[in-house]
Specification:
The protein is of the alpha+beta class. The chain contains 11 helices and 17 strands. Helix 1 crosses helix 2 and helix 2 packs parallel to helix 3.
Length: 404
């Protein structure tokens, strides 16, 4: 179950970035569950990672390797998170890096490992190693779609985005994939995300632009309020287009806009495929005193089980939204001034139910798949949006049966 059409854009290859996909049978026989990504020499790489204190062994190792040298390979497995596995988890992640490095003629620190799946179970190292040769043989710049399937866990469909723009007769491409459907309230990026461009970008600038893009996209989504132990997102710039981008100016603006579009599309795709989701919901808070205040109100609404179950039932129970705004911790809130809307239907004004509101208007909005909950605080000039889902019986079944 997912919200919106199951369509993907044409995924343009990124010169200097090859992908290989194979099956190791980690959780299900024959399932694509190992992905190797090869980065050309001279490329720059940036990454953002979970802030969960119980971060997985591959996250710890990737952060360490990223500081040591420019990565040449990314190794992903699904079906096992290698999280909550202690010292053995680090040993296992390190061995996987060493095995891939030996096959590809690079140092182990040139490999960044990524894992996703069940927490607390030993990594099936031998299965992953056994699939490496097949993944390497499969390396191609055309394999973005296969890779989008190869990184899925409880996802019901792949997630991918692509943008291109022209500059002085040259084309710059940005292509990306992501995975995630549950345990989604990233505190850095997404469950797993991989984005590559053929532009040339200095590593420090690439890191800055990735962090800023993640903050406005992956850090603004929530399905269930749980931050994963394994969240990671990587941005690679191969430089093969011959277009070099510096900070400031028209070219930087074109690139940042395209990158932000790709990241936001990938983030929205995760919400649309949220576990058991039947609604895609934007919660927008405007005229707040600052961003922190706007986000506090937005997340209080987005995380409320009462609001989320009302969304699932298509029930215009606007009192639940009003109660969330009231308990969001906003100091000196002027109840008479604020307004709350469902799409463009005003449901709350002057401290209570809007005079012109009817149940029929609210029901018409709630019957839709895509809903905007819009809060106007009338306290300042800051605004924020977060995106979320409803909470369905399917979400409960998916997570109750996750290890079955």
């Amino acid at each position: 179950m997912a919200v919106g059409p199951d369509t993907l854009p044409a995924l343009k290859p990124v010169p200097g970035f090859r992908i290989g996909v194979a099956s190791a049978g980690i959780k299900k026989p024959g399932r694509r569950d190992v992905v190797v990504m090869e980065i050309c020499e001279g490329a720059t790489v940036a990454g953002v990672f979970t802030k969960n204190a119980f971060c997985a062994a591959p996250v710890t190792l990737s952060k360490k390797h990223l500081k040591a040298e420019q990565p040449r390979y990314l190794l992903t497995n699904t079906g096992n998170a290698n999280a909550g596995t202690g010292a053995q988890g680090m040993t296992d992640a390190t061995r996987c890096c060493e095995e891939l490095a030996s096959r590809c003629g690079v140092s182990p620190t040139a490999v960044l490992p990524f894992s996703t799946g069940v927490i607390g179970e030993p990594l099936p190292v031998n299965k992953i190693i056994g699939a490496m040769d097949a993944a390497i043989e499969n390396l191609s710049e055309e394999n973005w779609l296969d890779a989008s399937h190869g990184i899925m866990t409880t996802d019901t469909r792949p997630k991918a985005a692509c943008e291109q723009f022209e500059y002085q007769g040259k084309t710059v491409t940005i292509t990306g994939i992501s995975k995630g459907a549950g345990m989604i309230m990233p505190n850095m990026a997404t469950m797993l995300g991989y984005v590559a461009t053929d532009a040339a970008v200095d590593q420090a600038l690439l890191q800055r632009w990735l962090s800023e893009a993640a903050e406005r996209s992956f850090n603004r989504i929530t399905v269930d309020g749980d931050t994963s132990t394994n969240d990671s997102c990587v941005l690679v710039a191969t430089g093969k287009s011959g277009v070099e981008i510096d900070a400031g100016g028209e070219l930087a603006g074109l690139f940042v806009n395209a990158l932000n579009k790709v990241m936001l599309d990938l983030a929205h795709a995760i919400v649309r495929d949220g576990e058991g989701a039947t609604k895609f919901v934007e919660v927008r808070v405007e005229q707040a005193r600052d961003s922190e205040e706007a986000l506090s109100v937005a997340y209080t609404i987005a995380h409320s089980p009462l609001v989320k179950t009302a969304l699932y039932a298509s029930d215009p129970n606007w009192g639940r939204i009003l109660a969330c705004v009231g308990r969001a911790g906003v100091q000196d809130l002027d109840l008479e001034a604020l307004e709350i809307y469902l799409n463009d239907v005003c449901i709350v004004e002057q401290g209570g139910r809007a005079a012109g509101y009817t149940e029929e208007q609210g029901q018409a909005v709630m019957n839709g798949e895509e809903i905007l909950i819009h809060v106007v605080l009338k306290r300042g000039h800051s605004w924020e949006s977060v995106w979320t889902t409803d909470l369905s019986t399917d979400y409960v079944h998916i997570n109750a049966d996750y290890r079955s």
